[in-house]
Amino acid sequence: MIEQLPEALILKILSSLPTKTVLSTSSLSKEWQSRWKSVPKFEFNSEDYESEHQTFPEVVSKSFFSSEAAVLDCFHLTCGSDQVDPVDVVHWIDTAFARQLRPLVLDFISDDDEYFVFTSRLCNCDTLETLKLGSMIIVDVSSPGSMKSLKTLHTYAWYQNDESILNLLSSCRILEELVVGRSAEHTVSFFTIEVPSLKRLVIYDDNSCTEFFGYTIVAPSLKYLKIEELRCPQFSLNAPDLVEANIAGVSSGINESLASVRRLFLDLSPSEVTLFIFPLDFFVLLSQCFVCIVNNLISCIDS
After folding, report:
1. Which of 131-140, 189-198, 245-254 is least confident?
2. CA angle in degrees (0–180, nearest 5) for 286-245-169
3. What is the tens place of the pLDDT at every residue in 60-110?
4. Cα–Cα distances in angstroms (integers) from residue 139 to residues 8, 44, 108, 243, in the given order
């Protein structure tokens, strides 16, 4: 029955399946031997490829070499750092970039502290719209690249130095969403986020390293801010158009103006509340809300 469907719909169905399943369809019939080659999506997980005949890098390389898709809608790579050669990974990414890649997701797993290095060379793809970097990656960007279509960046990576952060973000001219996840990283002193186009920022940071001093954020277009597990001593925020803030687990002082915030969600312990300094406008707004609540209660009692 599936043969009766339009070819475009068949490819859409195949694009929703894991790449391993898509590759296996080549054995269905003669008509299906080459159909997988037009699927514009590659999602590889090394745990799914345990074969005596082919290694995981051989499977990925052969798939890229045989693919006939002119445009790639996604390239998602999950593997152990000790299972692939970094040279092969860079070659796969270069191949995906040449085919107008849109989302790129890199997630490495290693028990031996082997990291994949994300360099300036990989910051050049003008069709890339989404970039997600996992925790076993070191961002070493010595100069800004060009990712002029990138709107979404999720990074749980380590950074070679402060400049690598600046250069990575400078490569994203229209970035709108940034998710930063950090833990025990000692290579950065200040995490500077200066992105005029940024609208949504999420920070998960339980890094208590004494060499890390804090965040400097300049985001004039920022509308939504979420912070969890912030332990650094300094936090500077310049976001005059901020509408909503969700703050939890903060053990450092945030004394920036939140006068423009319309919705504020706090999940703080009593000790953390003392570190959170609210602007005068916030207390005025809070008192007005309290008066309204009291008046409504009195009205309900009278009625």
Report:
1. 245-254
2. 150
3. 998 899 888 889 999 999 998 888 999 999 999 999 999 999 999 999 987
4. 38, 22, 13, 31
Specify the pLDDT at position 257: 55
pTM to 2 decimals?
A: 0.84
Return d(Cα 92, Cα 97) in angstroms, integer: 9
Exposure b/e, 229-254, CB count within 10 A at least 16 = b: bbebeebebebeebeebebebbbbbb
Integer-rounded Cα Rg, in Å, for the chain is 24
Alpha carbon distances (Å) from 134 to 7, 30, 182, 229, 230: 35, 39, 11, 19, 20
- What single-letter amino acid sits at 211? E
How would you write the chain as a 3-class SS string?
CHHHCCHHHHHHHHHCCCHHHHHHHHHCCHHHCCHHHHCCEEEEEHHHCCCCCCCHHHHHHHHHHHCCCCCCCEEEEEEECCCCCHHHHHHHHHHHHHCCCCEEEEEEECCCCCCEEEEHHHHECCCCCEEEECCCEEEECCCCCECCCCCEEEECCEECCHHHHHHHHHCCCCCCEEEEEECCCCCCCEEEEECCCCCEEEEEECCCCCCCCEEEEECCCCCEEEEECCCCCEEEEECCCCCEEEEECCCCCECCCCCCCCEEEEECCHHHHCCECCCHHHHHHHHHHHHHHHHHHHHHHHC
Pairwise CA distance, residues 194 & 219, whole Å = 6
